[in-house]
Amino acid sequence: MSNQKKRIFQIEAFKNRVVVDPSYSEKTWNILDHAIHQNQICNQNASGLSFEELYRNAYNMVFHKFGEKLYSGLFTTMTACLQETSISLEAAQVHRERTGEAIDRGLMRNIVKMLMDLGFSVYLEEFEKPFLEVSAEFYKGESQKIMECCDCGDYLKRAEIRINEERDDCYPHDKISPQGELRLGKYAS
Amino acid sequence: MKKEDTVKLISSEGMEFVIDKEAAMVSQTIRNMLTSPGGFAEAEHGVVTFPEINAVILEKICQYFYWSLQYSRGKETEFHIEPELTLELMMAANYLHT
């Protein structure tokens, strides 16, 4: 590297850092991906993981100009993680609310907002579809039960109450898409 | 030195440096390793390995930590760096957020 003390100090180019292996970025990314998914960062448990190793791999990726790959890979992985957890949470929450239990509205709102932030299309596909399917199932079941025991007037009243409940439910969240609302109304009737 | 107040830093050759936690925390990276939630192995055992930093550089870095603490307490001395170490030292410092 540097020359003798008598000569002018020079820094030579850092030769031993050239990345010869073309699949280096792929390998490095796989290490990180593995750590995030299988080694339970998803489940909020990082015990046994080495921070330094993960940090070093991420650092090397950026250092060798693979930062973009790192970012997009992370994005997809975290999205998948979040979807899994939030969808199951949402379904559970909504079901409980419909059966009359009080739920943590703040939590609901945050989850919905999170999904929205991930991208509106993400929200539409991943959340609304299963949400509406579940709603459809629920209403079919409910309407049959009601038809068995009440008369027509009663049924219409209950249906109206349900529609209003759902609409109130959605307004605080403020974000349900217009199509979503329409379809919800259709299922309720 | 009590065991709880120290951390062990291990270089690429396997040389171990035991220093005060306070000194190690001069490095943002090390500070994060030891304090971030989630139970990483480093925080649990108080040991951090650096497979890409060699012993000479790591030693200089440990010296820097202590110098930094002294400097912040008012003792304004110079920190001498041998020229041939500068490049690797700079890269390690960047890595360690120091």
From TrEMBL, chain A:
PANTHER family on file: CULLIN (PTHR11932)
Phylogenetic lineage: Eukaryota, Viridiplantae, Streptophyta, Embryophyta, Tracheophyta
Gene3D superfamilies, per database record: Cullin Repeats
Organism superkingdom: Eukaryota
Pfam families: Cullin
SUPFAM superfamilies per UniProt: Cullin repeat-like (SSF74788)
Full protein name: Cullin N-terminal domain-containing protein
Ranges where the Cullin N-terminal domain occurs: 29-86, 92-170
Similarity annotation: Belongs to the cullin family.
UniProtKB/TrEMBL annotation, chain B:
SMART domains for the chain: Skp1 (SM00512)
Keywords, alphabetical: Nucleus
Pathway: Protein modification; protein ubiquitination
InterPro entries for this protein: ELC1, SKP1-like, SKP1/BTB/POZ_sf, Skp1_comp_POZ
Cellular localization per UniProt: Nucleus
Pfam name, any one: Skp1_POZ
Domain SKP1 component POZ: 6-66
Family under the similarity heading: Belongs to the SKP1 family.
Protein name: Elongin-C
Species, as recorded: Hibiscus sabdariffa (roselle)
